[in-house]
Amino acid sequence: MEILDAVVIGAGQAGLSASYHLKRRGISHVVLDADDAPGGAWQHRWDSLTMRDVHGIAALPDSASPADEAGRANVVVPGYFGGYEREHDLPVVRPVRVDRVTSEGDLLVVRAGDRSWTARTIVNATGTWSQPHLPYYPGIETFRGEHLHTHRYPGPGHFRARRVVVVGGGASAVQLLGEIAPVAADTLWVTRREPVWRTDDFTPEVGRAAVALVEERVRRGLPPASVVSVTGLVLREQERAAERLGAYARHPMFTAIEPDGVRMPDGSLWEADVILWATGFRPAIAHLAPLHLRSEHGGIRLDGTTAVQDRRVQLVGYGPSASTIGANRAGRVAARGVAAWLAQSESSASSA
Question: Could you tell me which CATH number the domain at 3-130+281-351 has?
């Protein structure tokens, strides 16, 4: 039985960064990716999302980020990731969908159907894209219109001449309203809290401060908030047309969903054809359940990227690294954490 030093689960930005740094350190590992092709979650983004729309992405280690601002993000980024894998000869195996990770003595066993890999450590980099969050509201099952989540956003043409409710206070809601409002019959934007708009520039210092806020949550074992949730919202030039149409007049959450629309707090019915849920994603970590990593607060407590409950486990693409702001750095930190555990284990074995 081959025993690897590490198994990386996921080949998005954080996973590739971790693999690059593990390889530089000479740490034997494999990267298991659930997708058929390179690109992580980027390959599943909607066609209208361009590289200009995503404010660029953090470059992978020792590599310049793509310069094609007009290109589709779901084409440019997967191409970039695939080229990076080949250039650095990263040990990616796909498609492999991990079912569970179990602890067997000093080792961890990563299982995917009838296949398994045994390792001294794991780096979990599964991100959030496969776990869209659709909250429950009274009457949701009675709606005769269409429910959509941003996970399956079909492009603005799908909403032409339709009445659309957009739910959510994050950047994706703002961006999609910018596309939908100019072609829809009408839109209604509802959020649980008043949106926070940025009035200053989003500098690297601001990004690092936002990451630090999310890091503090996971250090305490709380469920992670998204980095975007603490950076605030800003309207880009391509969203000004929607602004002129009044699309960004925020309304409080409806009290119920009815067959023909949503019931507002004042008792009125806003008739709707589509409810678009821009309600975010949850960490894709169900396969880690056998390791019992969650704290009493419901999240996984981290020290950097190291799971406090089991220091053989590194988490990247979780909490502060679940965005392009923190993913690249997290891969380097995780590789350092793996190396530290391996050195500690070797030292313990030598002194025994």
Answer: 3.50.50.60
CB 117 within 8 A of CB 32: yes
Question: Among 299, 326, 280, which residue's Cα sits nearest to residue 125?
Answer: 326
Domain coordinates in residue numbering, the chain? 3-130+281-351, 140-197+233-277
**Contact by Cβ (8 Å): 346, 120:** no
Peptide bond into 182 cis (omega under 30): no
Q: How far apart are CA 184 and CA 163, in angstroms?
A: 6
Strands 107-112 and 92-93: unpaired
The alpha carbon torsion through 32, 33, 38, 41 (nearest 10 deg) reads -140
How many angstroms separate the CA atoms of 62 and 75, rounded? 21
User: 169: which 2 tokens?
Assistant: 């206070």
Confidence check: pLDDT of 250 > 80? yes
Residue 140's contacts (CB-CB under 8 Å, 6 or more residues apart) are 147, 257
CATH code reported for the domain at 140-197+233-277: 3.50.50.60
Question: pLDDT (tens digit, 9 = 90+) per residue, 253-286?
Answer: 999 999 999 999 999 999 999 999 999 888 899 9
Nearest-angstrom CA–CA distance, 39 and 21? 19
User: Residues near 31 by Cβ (< 8 Å), separated by ≥ 6?
Assistant: 8, 10, 11, 15, 16, 19, 90, 91, 92, 93
Give the span between the Cα atoms of 199 and 206, in whole angstroms: 12
Q: Coil, strand, or helix at residue 240? A: helix
pLDDT value of residue 65: 79
